[in-house]
Amino acid sequence: MIEPLEAQARLDQIVMLIAKHMETEVCSLYVLRADGVLELYATEGLNPGSVHLAQLRLGEGLVGTIAATARPLNLSDAQNHPAFTYLPETGEEIYATFLGVPVLRAGRTLGVLVVQNKAAGRVYPEEESEALETVAMVIAEMIAAGGLEGLSRPGVTLDLTRPVSFAGLALCDGIGIGRVVLHEPRVIVSSLFNEDVDSEVSRLTEALAILRESIEGMLARREVADEGEHRAVLETYRKFAQDRGWVRRLEEAVRNGLTAEAAVEKVQSDMRARMMHLTDPYIRERLHDFDDLANRLLRQLIGQVGAGNGASDAVVVARNMGAAELLDYHRGQIKGLVLEEGATTSHVVIVARALGIPVAGQVKGVVSMAENGDPIVVDGESGDVHLRPPPEVHDLFADKLGFRAERQQRYRSLRDLPAKTRDGVAIGLQMNAGLLVDLPQLAESGAEGIGLFRTELQFMVASTMPRASDQERLYRAVIDAAGTRPVTFRTLDVGGDKLLPYLAHGLEQNPALGYRAMRLALDRPGLLRTQLRALLKAAGGRNLKIMFPMITDLSEIVAARTLIAREIEHLERFGYAPPNELKLGAMLEVPSLLYQLDPLMRMLDFVSIGSNDLFQFFFAVDRGNANVATRYDDLSVPFLRALRDVVLAGERHGVPVSLCGEMAGRPLSAMALIGLGFRSISMAPPSIGPVKAMLLELDAQKLRGELAALLDDPSEVGSARSFLKDFAERHRIPY
Ligand code: PEP
Ligand code: MG
């Protein structure tokens, strides 16, 4: 590799040598270009005329799959792999055995190195795969050092200056314009092979010791200062830093000839490769913590400790990241988040949403394409990401952002106005929350209180079961922050789409209809009792509202009440002050309750409709399945009739009825709810402004009359949406 050859001649030599030593018929190198295309740069065995002509897109074919997933593929029957794509110019269809490894440098895919054989049934052994990975690391250094410049066809250069757009998944609304901050700074490992195994092993051991110490230090510092979501993650790091298997693999790699940093990088690449393969969200999140730890160790070895980024317009770009790592950034500093992985339920996404950071997920290839400081635009509404956007794209989004900012400014000016309709009906606008980081929104949004505190978020963001004291501390902090404003705590709503990694959830065919929420909580009362006790203690001498999720049968309310009574008795026996006033409510999310509304109301102090789930069960549509979730309308006449029945039952019994699903945050739906008689609704904090702007212009009694006429007409079917839009337009109500 260090022979003084022209770049192409050197590559040709490399693939020839690999083929010879591994006794394979084919060895090819594909390089990832800035436009996301993998181009054949050198081959031994395939048609030489196809070099610089054969191309695959990221994710296309076996080679594209390896590049997109950053994970090796070792196959004995390549043509039958679902991702196989035939490139006629290379003549490769006769090769059955296939081993391809990504050419990775500091977590970034630069290309793919492949060996192939005709003989079917042969599998490349593990050592050969490892050897090929090591060669790929060396090639990566060569590419990074500019060793391939000028090799591609004219017009396609390897430089990362071109605009690229990605279509990702919209995970949190908003527009972010700024500069790329790679979450994992590219730590450049330039010396790969060690000269003295023993001294390298001691370097590694020393760095590990310093790493462990620094984690202890962080834990000690946070002991009193910060009991939030952060601590649990640090505790996981502490455990991982002691992990014997990890340390052994690192040492092994050093003993095989690598430097300590190259060993960390190699073990990290293997880990990432496994990570891509896993579907279990819990294990993925945990391996991700490992990945972060490996980065810290690398920085330790290379001496880049504490290299932070102070940019004020950061768009953080990462493969994936832990929730706590996002909290490490300054809130005002982050304009957006772009993830190669990431799903609605990822912890980091939950936290980003709480912080109001626009997020696009599943943005394949972005880490490879982005450089620190590159201009970037993330559109959290569509999921699109524009890296190094041309001026016209940048300006378009700058305009959109300006427009949004103006609107926000308008909403802010409404914040201190009372939420009263034009005809003087007061509407309680409450906010939904679930984490400590949500709390500043109480003042910022002008919410009257917290109408839904999703207690499961604390459990979902942690890597182990939050202790009773952790729960109590969070609840106390929430009640303190709310001051005189009411907070409605919902007890654990897990199961369904909200899985707790550390709690065994059996595989279910229909998790939404499965063992979840109160069903689980009443069967395993230990969990619920601990939570109830934490709530009761945190609210000692103050007001407390507790509500139970997914109530399906009234006996569940009786059982829950019994548990609460027992906990109160227990606390009083030990001299704790009970809450000043305790109100118990239920979420109405299951249609079975619609046919027992009177007895239901008699049992409760309040009811809150979970319209997300009620809609899901009413229409039998999976709320998380994009193919069907928007197929039916939540403003349909039958659904509105059901909602009205609940309001009327509440009125009959003097029991307040609220609604805390997503519907409450959409101005047109919120208008419909007020028209049905709702006097309190709870929504995500950013929705409070738009909903308030709507209701300030609304004549609630007039709408109630007109809507009643529509719903009372038995022949009326279908959606009330056009009626509602027409009403809003006639009365100049912004929606
Ligand atoms: C709902 O179902 O509408 C609700 C508010 O609960 P969640 O979205 O947490 O299931
Ligand atoms: Mg629900």
TrEMBL record:
It catalyses: L-histidyl-[protein] + phosphoenolpyruvate = N(pros)-phospho-L-histidyl-[protein] + pyruvate. InterPro entries: GAF (IPR003018), GAF-like_dom_sf (IPR029016), PEP-util_enz_mobile_dom (IPR008279), PEP-utilizing_PTS_enzyme (IPR050499), PEP_util_C (IPR000121), Phosphohistidine_dom_sf (IPR036637), PTS_EI-like (IPR006318), PTS_EIN (IPR008731). It is found in: Cytoplasm. Its cofactor is Mg(2+). Its EC number is 2.7.3.9. Transmembrane segments: none annotated. Its main location: cytoplasm. One of its GO terms (molecular function) is phosphoenolpyruvate-protein phosphotransferase activity. Keywords: Cytoplasm, Kinase, Magnesium, Metal-binding, Phosphotransferase system, Sugar transport, Transferase, Transport. Pfam families: GAF (PF01590), PEP-utilisers_N (PF05524), PEP-utilizers (PF00391), PEP-utilizers_C (PF02896). The keyword Transport applies. Belongs to the PEP-utilizing enzyme family. NCBIfam families: PTS_I_fam (TIGR01417). This is phosphoenolpyruvate--protein phosphotransferase. It comes from Jiella pelagia.
